[in-house]
Amino acid sequence: MQSKLQNSSFYWPIRLVPSERRAALAAVYEWCSSLDDIVDGQGRADGKAATLFAWRQWLAAPDSDPPHERDLARKFAATFDEFGVARADAEKLLDGFTQDLAGDVRAPATADLIRYCQRVAGAPGRMCLTVLGWHAPDAGEFADAAGVAVQLTNILRDIEEDALRDRLYIPREALDAAGIDASDPKSAISHPNFDRAWLAVALLANAHFLLAESLLPKDRRKQIRPALAMLAIYRALHAGLRKRGWRRNAPRFRLAHWKYAAITARALCFGTIR
């Protein structure tokens, strides 16, 4: 799991925080990542659903035995007591992954897609902001906007990978406007007009990057620099994807390694996501 963290976009931003908060942020990341591995890994859907349900039961009684990864569960549970991370946010993440298993996010309505993004990316964002000390209600609004922007960027990048799992996160309205039948994800992404639907999601993501920036109080920028660095990295990923545009069978888009450090340094110095 440590190597997975080191290879993630989260690695450089997390280095901005003191060691005790860094360990808590790593625990949040690792727990969320372990759930993602369960949902996207090998195995029957009913078995995966049972594991998610077992984690939900554990959240209701953290002193009970977790489904697996006992040491990770112990570290994640410590964030509840030491930093006030809300179990409700962890449950929202489970709700989002349960949607994935149930196939409830194939060509969803735009409003449903946004709610899904708030669950799988906004809720982890709230947990991280809590660890960083931002507990006010406006933290949730910022986390939701940022989470939607981040998750839509992931969706834009992972279109073909998701289609192989029989998933299509492009909203129904965008597909209809492009004249695309979404009954089969693989066929949908092969449609000659798919670039139009892809661009609609890119524009929606950009709107949420702008919304997140507008919701960030100036007096919070220093406190949540790791979150700003993470958002800045995703904004750069989004810009790169927009510049390249939709392309079938293109290599997975990545930023150069030096850019991660440079973007993190800029967030550290200037408290900006641009």
- Percent helix range: over 70%
CA(first)-CA(last) distance: 30 Å
SS-based structural class? mainly alpha
H/I helix tally: 14
From the alpha carbons, calculate the radius of gyration and give it in angstroms. Answer: 18 Å
Number of strands: 0
CATH topology of one domain, by name, is Farnesyl Diphosphate Synthase
Q: Report the CATH superfamily of one domain.
A: Farnesyl Diphosphate Synthase
Secondary-structure element order, N to C? HHHHHHHHHHHHHH
- CATH domain class of one domain: Mainly Alpha
Average pLDDT: 89
Question: Mind telling me which CATH architecture of one domain this is?
Answer: Orthogonal Bundle
Biggest pleated-sheet summary:
none
Instruction: Tell me the fraction of residues in β-strands, as a range.
Output: under 5%
**Uncertain regions spanning at least 5 consecutive residues:** none
Indicate the overall shape: globular
Polypeptide structure, described:
- The chain has 274 residues and is mostly helical.
- It has a domain of 184 residues: Farnesyl Diphosphate Synthase.
- The protein is 70% helix and 0% strand.
- The radius of gyration is 18 Å and the shape is globular.
- The two termini are 30 Å apart.
